[in-house]
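Hi team,

Filling in the usual template for the complex we talked about on Friday. All components are listed, including any nucleic acid strands or ligand strings, so the model treats them as one assembly.

SUBMITTER: L.P.
PURPOSE: interface mapping
COMPONENTS: two
RESIDUES: 558
SEQUENCES:
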Amino acid sequence: MHYNKGMTFLEQLELTIQDHNSLLCIGLDTDVAKIPQHLQLEQDSVYLFNKAIIDATSELVCAYKINIAFYSAYGEYGLNSLLQTVSYIKDTYEHIPVILDAKRGDIRETSEKYANEAFDVIGADAVTVNPYMGFDSVEPFLKRRNKGVIFLARTSNPGALDFEELLIEGTPLYSKVTQKVAEWHKEYKNCLLVVGATAPKQLEEIRKIAPDMVFLIPGIGAQGGDLGATLKAGLRADKAGLLINSSRSIIYASNEGDFAQKAMEKAQELRDQINTFRI
Amino acid sequence: MHYNKGMTFLEQLELTIQDHNSLLCIGLDTDVAKIPQHLQLEQDSVYLFNKAIIDATSELVCAYKINIAFYSAYGEYGLNSLLQTVSYIKDTYEHIPVILDAKRGDIRETSEKYANEAFDVIGADAVTVNPYMGFDSVEPFLKRRNKGVIFLARTSNPGALDFEELLIEGTPLYSKVTQKVAEWHKEYKNCLLVVGATAPKQLEEIRKIAPDMVFLIPGIGAQGGDLGATLKAGLRADKAGLLINSSRSIIYASNEGDFAQKAMEKAQELRDQINTFRI
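RESULT (copied from the run log):
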């Protein structure tokens, strides 16, 4: 099967997972203060950095994830870097899906505008959303059926204990969210879940509730999640169904002129390491 | 007491509430498709619309709230309208606080970037945040102690029933959020809560948990919340402690050349109506 523009996000993702034999998603959370100094002097430094990372890793990933906060923190300049980066991927590697990590959500009329931001202005293929405000706050995203809608379930950060783990008649909130999102997925066929690699037991529970869904997994690498435990707990029966995200440990693998080469080596290492658990 | 730049958001807000004898917050959720046609022809139409509304209503409000989604939906153009609008308020009516309604939240490192977006790029005095991911996801906002951090507790939309109302040993999630935020407020002194006008019973409960905090109340007007019931349930002992937000029913009061005048009349009417419950 080949990529065509009529594919949904999930179809495009499954295709790229197969073609690249990869569950690796690279997070382009590029901070201008952390890129090599020789690039910092350039006008389009963030975009040039991203372009080099993308060119070096395009055959190793199943998706790129871009966290909008790293761009919005620099106003118009940041927005331009973001738009340039997404356009570059679309123009050069159009088969690779782009996830906008934005964790959006608001009342219906406002979420319509956020859907415009993610899909029409930025041109992402999928977006992360926050479930707190419930169905009407995410429906405008769900209705874009060819796009992916990725719900926070059990996140990778320490604060996940504050609310996500609260028990509702013995069932944690993140499981309640999973149950609801699994229902919505039956109807809309475009939902995914965020489950942190720092909580493999919870990941196992979530996999039981949603055996067929795809999960986006942050928390490997800089956040300390265990890869083996994560894959054991989270892989679908077909040895796929996961997007393992890594940002900092790949894109900042080197701070020198060889940064793209080193990022490629790190990406290849992680992709291959992931695949040893998929046999 | 007069306004000075050293004031915290909450001090500035309390001062404006007193000076303007108003709990009214106007939401500048400006949609270019809904503004009068004669303005749509102008290059800076959204900014010019906002400027006219602000000039007409500045003495009637205690704050302006700007929902970033309405601007982000138009990319660079929207970002410019937003920045122009905030600058205009800061240059012309610097005593009136500006709330950025953005419902942000992510892991700590990323929320740092979102705090940059809200406070440094846009220059807001307060921002709304989503509590789902817990403490470290909001700490970067809390640490900006002169800024306000406004947490979603019980929102005004139908989807609030999906998760916010789930019971944890008899206590709804929104109350658990309120308890936690009230603790954080003791430490940081800069927290507020979002409580929808569509749920006066829940508002009453939340007021009991947080008797001294300030609540931002959406849901009056277009969303159908009852003003009397809301004020009865939510006013603090000092007859303040609430920001009653209204957007569409004020800013789109007329679609003609008299839109600013009509917005002023609607704002005055609502401010005065609110005040009849504060005696």
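MY TAKE: Residues 75-92 of chain A form the longest helix (18 residues). The radius of gyration of chain A is 18 Å.

Thanks, L.
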